[in-house]
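A quick aside before the break. I want you to see a complete sequence-to-structure record at least once, exactly as it would be stored in a machine-readable document. Don't worry about memorizing anything.
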Amino acid sequence: MCFSGSYFSFWEAYLEADQHLCQFGPHLIVPTWNHLWFVAYLWVFTALLALGLSVAPSVFTRLQHWLERVLSGWGLVLWPACWLALAWLFLEHRFPLSYACAIYIPAFLLGYLTPKSDVIWMRMDGVRWRVLAGALLSYCSMIGLAFLVLGAHGGWGAQMAANHSGLKILELRTMGAAVYGLDQWLWILAVFGIARHYLANWDGPIRRYLTDAIFPFYIIHQTTIEVLGHYLAKERLPLGVEATLLIGATIASCFATYEVARRIRALRPLFGLKPASASRSHSPAKDWPFAER
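That is the input. The structure line, written in C-alpha cells, reads:
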C-alpha cells in the first residue's frame, strides 16, 4: 500500500502534485492520466490531421490511392504485419516513445483513410474468415514459442528481462516479433471484415446505443477494475468467482455510467458525448439482422 491517508487527503496531495504519494516501490508521478493517455494521443493526432487537411488536402487523397494499391492481394496482410513486427523488434524495448509513434500514427492515419475506401473495405470483407483462422493460429503460435524456448513454468517476462542479450532470447524476440505483428494485424482485419459484412448497411437502436457508449465505457472500465479488484483481492475468493464478479461489475458500471452521463447535460462532454440535440438527429432505424446476407 503506497498511501494510507483518507480519500480526500489523497486527492489533496494528488492535485498538489505531491511526488511522495508512493513511498515504496515504483513511484507514481502525479498528476497522471493513467489509461486516458489514449485521449491525449488522439487529440494531438486529430489536431495535426486537421492542420494537414487545411494545408494540403490533396496529399491525403494521394495517400488513400497509394494504400489501395499497396493493400491488395497478399499485401493486405503482409505489409502492415511487417511494419508492426519491425517496430516491435527494433523500437519497443529501446525506444518506447518512438515505438508508440511508429504504431499509433500509422494506425490513426489508416483509421482515417480506410473508411473512405470501399475498395479496402471490400477486401477486408472478402478475407474475414481466413484472417480470423490465421489470427487464432498465430496466437497459439506465440504461446507455443514461449513454451518451447522459455519452458512451461512461466515467468517468461522476467526471463527475457534477465537474459536480454542471450542468443535464445534474441531468437525468441525475432520469431516472436514476426508472429506478434502478424497476430495483431490479423485480428484487426478479422474484426473489420466481419463488421463490414454484417453491419455496414444496417442501422438500429442497438447499434446507435452502443456506438455512443464506446467512450464512456472506455473512460470508466479501468477505474472499476482497479478499485473493485483491490477490495476483491482481500476476500481471497476462488479465482472463477472473483473473475466473474469483476467482469460482471465492470460491465454493469460501464452501462450505469453511460446511462447517467447521457442524461445529464453537463456530464456529456466530459464523457465524449455529443450535445443532446445532436445525438437525437439519426437516420431512420432499420432492422437488426444477424443472419448472413
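Two observations worth writing down. The first helix runs from residue 7 to 15. Confidence is low (pLDDT under 50) at residues 282-293. We'll return to this after the break.
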